[in-house]
Write a structure and sequence with these properties.
Blueprint: H1 9-14, H2 21-44, H3 54-102, H4 112-132, H5 137-141, H6 150-155, H7 159-176, H8 182-207, H9 212-237, H10 241-263, H11 275-289
Helix pairs in contact: 2-9, 2-10, 3-4, 3-8, 3-9, 3-10, 3-11, 4-7, 4-11, 7-8, 9-10
């Protein structure tokens, strides 16, 4: 996610960091060169294809509506992902509070079991982040979960879910040993159920992209429109037609690229959600609840980007 200090109008106009211009620069260059060739042919050899602006007006209007719809759909996915991770932060804070106040209550010092459960949830958070980004979830969770859990987590087809399962086993064991009231088991299980529900929502976003046929159609129409536009304005606009084509193409190609970038909010693009920073927030909250003094530093943006 791009995190920049408030920029002035001119700086905002000229900044490249976080914009889609680097992503579409090659496409814009191709369209501009093609428009220059069409204009040169029109000047020296006569127009080979003199189209009116009517079809471009009609198609451009429809294309704008469809691009707006697609970008709204992509942003809905982005914002839903952010809301789910906001719920995850709240659920993890609730988990730490419940473990430390309902189980083996000791206001002076957390017991070994309490510390193990709080740290295991931190391991779950890091594993879930890696899982969403298709990274090595067991390796990320390893330092936080008990050694006895490692093999099961490594073998699991869904490592984060396996960690939650192991945490659930630990809660049941605490209840059977008498260190947790059966009524409080329901509260802890409710928090685990909430966390699993959040995981399912995130996995739904990750595993269900916008239908490919729709995305492919948008790409093709945008490309065809930008390449055909010089034939509609070369004769009437004259030497300025390459610049006009460049400006119009920047608008359409830019909107198309923005939709692509935020469609998958859990990735590592500059405008994706800062899952590493959100995970660090939960890690610091959990360790602070355990009264750990040497907390890891808060995540800071690197070159204006939070990962």
């Amino acid at each position: 996610m791009i995190v920049l200090e408030r920029l002035g109008w001119l700086k905002l106009l000229l900044t490249m960091r976080g914009s889609v211009l680097p992503r579409i620069a090659g496409r814009l260059a191709c369209v501009f060169v093609f428009a220059c060739l069409v204009e040169a042919f029109d000047l020296f050899r006569g127009s080979v294809l003199d189209l009116t602006l009517i079809p471009f007006t009609l198609i451009g209007l429809a294309l704008s509506i469809f691009l707006g719809f697609r970008n709204n759909t992509s942003y809905d996915r982005f914002w839903e992902g952010r809301k789910l991770w906001g719920r995850m932060i709240n659920a993890n804070r609730t988990w730490s509070r419940q473990v430390l106040t309902l189980m083996d209550a000791n206001p002076q010092q957390p017991t070994e079991r309490q510390e193990r459960l709080v740290r295991a949830m931190v391991g779950y958070v890091h594993a879930f982040r890696a899982w969403l980004r298709r990274e090595n979830a067991p390796a990320v969770a390893g330092p936080w979960i008990p050694e006895a859990w490692h093999q099961g987590v490594k073998r699991s087809s869904n490592p984060p879910a396996r960690i939650l399962q192991e945490i659930g086993h630990e809660v049941v064991a605490a209840s059977r040993s008498g260190s947790l009231d059966p009524i409080h088991v329901l509260a802890l299980d409710g928090t685990l159920t909430e966390i699993m529900s959040i995981q399912g929502g995130c996995e739904r976003i990750r595993n269900t992209p916008i239908p490919f046929a729709y995305t492919a159609l948008m790409h093709r129409i945008v490309a065809a429109y930008c390449l055909a536009l010089p034939f509609g304005i070369a004769h009437s606009v004259g030497l300025a037609s390459p610049l006009v084509v460049l400006f119009v193409s920047y608008a359409f190609l830019g909107l198309d690229a923005i939709g692509d970038e935020i469609e998958e909010p859990f990735g590592t693009d500059a405008n994706d959600l800062p899952l590493s920073q959100l995970s660090r927030v939960m890690e610091r909250d959990a360790l602070s609840a355990l009264d750990v003094e040497d907390l890891p530093p808060a995540a800071e943006p690197v070159d204006g980007v939070l990962s």
